[in-house]
Each structure stands twice: as structure tokens, then as C-alpha cells.
Design goal:
Layout lengths: L10 H17 L8 H22 L4 H29 L5 H7 L4 H11 L2 H20 L12 H16 L1 H4 L3 H26 L6 E3 L7 E7 L18 H5 L4 E4 L2 E2 L5 H8 L10 H4 L3 H7 L3 E6 L11 H4 L4 E4 L11 H8 L5 E6 L32 H26 L6 E7 L4 E2 L6 E2 L7 H4 L3 E5 L1 H6 L11 E2 L3 H9 L1 E3 L19 E2 L2 E2 H18 L15
Parallel strand pairs: 2-7, 2-8, 4-12, 5-6, 5-7
Antiparallel strand pairs: 1-13, 3-11, 8-11, 9-10, 14-15
Helix pairs in contact: 1-2, 1-3, 1-6, 2-7, 3-6, 3-9, 15-16
Length: 556
């Protein structure tokens, strides 16, 4: 017996399924970095799913239809709203890597983003996306409900196809809301396994030799946030955003060709805190991380953070919490200067020590990253802007850079007061930030990576006593380098020797050898070429006439 689908009578149901299952992947074709060919598998998979569900709904009563469609809305509206909202913000389809990072964004960051970057049109678009199917549910009625016993083969076949589509990974990955939950489940499983592996590793032997006559008394690592060297006067920016660092330029090593391994905080810190890289991601769990190395080497380790350290938070936090002492000042919700008194106290220890300072830096929302006294820029001295009406955002970002200059200089001042101590400080930003530098975009997003997002400042300060102790280190400021290898460089500065150490990957070693640098899935050279192409394209399109768009993908 054949099933009568009565499509004309079920137009509302058909429209509902197309709306929920096909609208988001179809709209995504507008994304800048996707082609229709790339999206075709997803559209076909979603169309197939909609067809199978449409047939199965012919076996439901009106009440059953409303319950089923309500459940379908419940499991699709969060992934759909997230993906659609990101598409409206960034004009790109949220990638799998960024989606995993999204699951680690804390409540404070999410609130800042929603309150300060949601514009009325995007809010209205997402609201309508959710409300329209709610109205449909109340209007849907069953038309000639089929009996399962009369169509057993059809019902069983459709049910089997549905289960296969949801269970077979290559197909499930093409269905946006199924893939959303799959990535979430994979992320949760991965983080649990990583935490167990890291905990287990603490009891395993790992020999480290320390050369006492080469090791510093104090080694400080300052990790910035979202700071692009393109907005630093120390690197040639036209605004005086680094008056204090520029004044002491002769005592600094300022590296001009350093890039981050990604453009989001979470994957960057998972890399810089460990020996893991693109070729060996397993090193995150199989080899000691930063604090583990220095703990075993006899250093007193301390983490001072102005970024939240929450239980069950970001997947790099178990690596940070391995510090012997952790000071979390993020709850004060104040600019980074709040860290200085804690840093001064940490310096008082007479033991050999590693101090890691994790800043909020220039994390969006930019105006929250500095006190009112540092609100000094008003748009008067900025270069010609590629986008109209964005002076305020650029001003706020540059003010945050100015305040960061004060914080870094203050840390150096505290170190310099300990005149006879062999000490060294390394400062770098986790990643950069694009702030309307050549197109209608402010923030960082791996889906549209540019050089502004990955070219980071890298500054080294050393005391005279340290220089006398370590005259074997070399400082060549033009060396091409990725912070993915920072752990090798810090080990070199600290005089550590252990199995797996590679002097050719230390920025300060005479044996340093330049390597291919990756930024996410791309090489840095490819990023440079795409950015130059984007600049040419943006200039030709006259993007200065476009309305401003802001996004901070932290998604960190």
C-alpha cells in the first residue's frame, strides 16, 4: 500500500522542516570563506533528513506532531541561533575549531559580548528565527494520519535511514545541529581524558637537570591578551601607545617577526604551555608542561592571573593550576594594574622562582581594560580609516594598548629594583587583534585569519646580573619565530636540560633554526598572502562606505 503524502495539505509542515533543517546551512552560503560546492554535502544531508522526517510525521496525530516539532525546535534552536548569529556578526560560518572554543567561554565574557556587541538588527533576526517556528507549531494540524501497521516497511525503512543518518559520522557531520552536539560531546570527553592524563603524569618520573651557574634567580613570563603589534608605537604605530616602553627601548630586546600559533586564546595557551604542536598534539598529555618542568627543576612557581580560573573552565586551566601557588584576581573585575601588588609580593621570595602573569590586556570590550585616566585618544591622529564611523572603537583599543604599556613597564620597574638579582622577563601576547585595519571587522576569528590577528609583540628584558651569567644566549631581534616554541626558549633561559629538549627551537640559542610557522590550519606565509589579497580587494570595493561591525570571538 502506497503512502499518500498529500503535500498540498501538509505545506505548513514541509515549510517548518525546511525552515529548521535547511535555512541555516543554506544561508551560510553567504559566508565569505565558503562556496556552494563546499556546502553542497551539508545541504543534501539536511534535505535528506527533512524528507525522511516529513514521511515519518505522516504517521503522527495533531498532538503528536506538535510534541515532535516542539522537541525538534528544542534541539535545533540553540545551534541554529549560535551559528546564524555568528554568521550575521562575522560574515563567516563558525568553524569546528572555533565552535569547540565557544564551549569554553565563561559567563562573564559571554555577557560582555552579548550586552555590548549585539545590535538591534541581529537581535531581531535571531528572535524571529526562534519565534517563527513557535507560531507554526500552534497552527500545524495532522492530515490523514497513516497507520503504522498498514505501512510497516515504509515506516521501518524511514526509521532505519534516520538512525543511520544520525549515527554515521560523515553524514552526521554535515547536519549542522547534530554536528554541534557531536563537537560538544567530543570536547567534554577530550577534556576529561586530558585532565586524568595530566593528573596521572604527576607521579611519573621525568628527569630534569638544572645548571645552577646558568639559571636565573627570577624568570617572569607575562602573557598578554589580544594585543596586535600593529597598534604599538614601539613597532612603528603612528600613535604614541608605548611611551614608557619606547623610552627604555635600549634596554629591551624587541622582536619584530613573531607570530602566534592560532588566533584564539584557548588553542594558543594549550600550545604555549606545553610541547604540543601540529605535528605532535599528543605531547600535551605525554610530556610535562611549563609549570611541571619548573616544579621538578626546583623552581618556586607562581601564577598571577586577571583572567578567570574557574572549575571546569577552559581546557588549558588544568595546566595553569599546576603552579605551586595560584593567585586569581579576576573577581575584582579591574584593569590589569590590580596584579602589580601581588607581583611585588611574589618577587620577595628568596627562592629561585618562575612567575607567570596572565593579563586581560586588550580583550574586548576594550574600554573595560583601562581606567578613565588612560582614555587619551580621541580619533584625531589615526590614519585614514578603511571603515567609516569606527573612531571610537579604535580609540578604545589604542587606550587599552597604552594602559598595557604602563603595566608592562611597571613590572619591569619592580624587577629593576632588585639590582643584583639575575632576572629576566619575557612578554608576548597570546594572539593579535584586527581593529578595522583594512576591512569592516574588529576582533579575531580563525575563519578569517589575518596577519593583524597573529603578528604579536615579543619583548625580552634582562638584568645586568643575568646578562653576565648568561653570555651564551644570543638576541637576534629579526629571527622569524612562533610562540608555539616558547617552552624551548624558556627552558633555555632557565638552564634546564631534559629528554626532548631541542636547542634549534630556542629563540635565544646559537643553534636556532627557523621553522615553517603555522597559524591554525594555515601557514603564516599563506596568511600574509591572503591578508594582502584582502587589502587589495577591500580597497577596490570601497569598504570605507560600509557600516561598522564588531566581534570578539572569545570563543577565546
Amino acid at each position: 500500500m502506497k503512502i499518500n503524502l498529500r503535500i498540498k495539505e501538509r505545506k505548513l509542515q514541509l515549510f517548518y522542516l525546511v525552515y529548521l533543517l535547511l535555512s541555516v546551512p543554506t544561508i551560510s552560503l553567504a559566508a565569505q570563506n565558503l562556496t556552494s560546492g563546499a556546502m553542497l554535502p551539508g545541504i543534501l544531508a539536511s534535505f535528506g533528513l527533512a524528507t525522511v522526517i516529513f514521511i515519518l510525521t505522516t504517521f503522527m496525530t495533531t498532538q503528536g506532531l506538535r510534541i515532535f516539532y516542539s522537541a525538534l525546535l528544542a534541539v535545533t534552536f540553540i545551534p541554529g541561533a549560535v551559528l546564524l548569529g555568528y554568521l550575521l556578526f562575522a560574515k563567516v560560518w563558525l568553524s569546528e575549531g572555533s565552535l569547540a572554543s565557544l564551549f569554553e567561554t565563561n559567563a562573564g565574557e559571554s555577557t560582555e559580548f552579548i550586552v555590548h556587541y549585539m545590535n538591534p538588527w541581529v537581535t531581531l533576526g535571531i528572535a524571529l528565527y526562534i519565534l517563527v517556528p513557535v507560531v507554526f507549531i500552534f497552527r500545524i494540524k495532522s492530515r490523514a494520519c497513516h497507520k503504522i501497521r498498514e505501512h510497516k516497511k515504509t515506516f521501518a525503512t524511514c526509521l532505519l535511514i534516520l538512525m543511520l543518518m544520525l549515527a554515521v559520522e560523515p553524514v552526521a557531520q554535515q547536519i549542522y545541529f547534530v554536528n554541534f552536539y557531536r563537537i560538544f560531546a567530543d570536547y567534554k570527553i577530550r577534556t576529561v581524558l586530558e585532565e586524568k592524563a595530566i593528573e596521572s603524569r604527576q607521579s611519573q618520573p621525568f628527569e630534569i637537570a638544572v645548571s645552577d651557574d646558568r639559571a636565573p634567580q627570577t624568570l617572569v613570563v607575562v602573557i598578554g591578551e589580544s594585543l596586535s603589534r600593529h597598534h604599538m608605537s614601539l613597532y612603528g604605530y603612528e600613535r604614541a601607545t608605548n611611551p614608557l616602553l619606547t623610552a627604555r627601548r635600549s634596554s629591551l630586546k624587541v622582536y619584530g617577526d613573531v607570530v602566534s600559533p592560532q588566533v584564539h586564546t584557548i588553542p594558543v595557551l594549550r600550545t604555549v604551555l606545553t610541547f604540543a604542536d601540529g605535528a605532535h598534539p599528543e605531547y600535551l598529555t605525554s610530556r610535562p608542561s611549563l609549570f611541571e618542568l619548573f616544579n621538578r627543576a626546583g623552581y618556586e612557581t607562581c601564577l598571577i592571573s586577571n583572567q578567570p580560573l574557574e572549575e571546569g573552565g577552559s581546557s588549558y586551566e588544568p595546566l595553569l593550576k599546576l603552579a605551586a601557588r595560584t593567585i586569581d584576581l579576576s573577581e575584582a573585575d579591574r584593569p590589569d594594574g590590580v596584579l602589580l601588588s601581588a607581583f611585588a609580593r611574589a618577587l620577595e621570595s628568596d627562592r629561585r622562582k618562575l612567575i607567570v602573569v596572565h593579563l586581560m590586556g586588550s580583550h574586548a570590550v576594550y574600554r573595560f581594560r583601562y581606567p578613565p585616566s588612560f582614555s587619551r585618544f580621541n580619533g584625531a591622529a589615526v590614519r585614514e580609516q578603511p571603515v567609516a564611523n569606527v573612531s571610537e572603537t579604535i580609540d578604545e583599543y589604542d587606550n587599552s594598548v597604552l594602559y598595557n604599556d604602563f603595566v608592562i613597564a611597571s613590572i619591569m620597574d619592580l624587577l629593576e629594583r632588585r639590582t643584583d638579582e639575575p632576572s629576566a622577563m619575557v612578554y608576548f601576547s597570546d594572539h593579535g587583534e584586527e581593529v578595522y585595519d583594512f576591512r569592516n571587522f574588529a576582533g579575531h576569528a580563525s575563519e578569517k585569519t589575518s596577519t593583524y590577528m597573529c603578528e604579536v609583540p615579543f619583548i625580552v628584558w634582562t638584568s645586568g646580573a643575568f646578562d653576565r651569567r648568561r653570555d651564551d644566549l644570543v638576541y637576534v631581534e629579526t629571527r622569524p619565530y612562533s610562540t608555539a616554541d616558547i617552552l624551548y626558549s624558556l627552558s633555555d633561559m632557565a638552564g634546564l636540560a631534559f629528554e626532548g629538549y631541542d636547542a634549534s627551537r630556542s629563540l635565544f640559542s646559537p643553534q636556532f633554526v627557523p621553522r615553517i610557522r603555522n597559524v591554525g590550519e594555515m601557514t603564516y606565509e599563506d596568511v600574509r598572502q591572503e591578508t594582502e589579497h584582502g587589502k587589495t580587494k577591500a580597497s577596490a570595493a570601497g569598504h570605507h562606505r560600509m557600516a561598522p561591525m564588531k566581534i570578539s570571538t572569545k570563543i577565546n
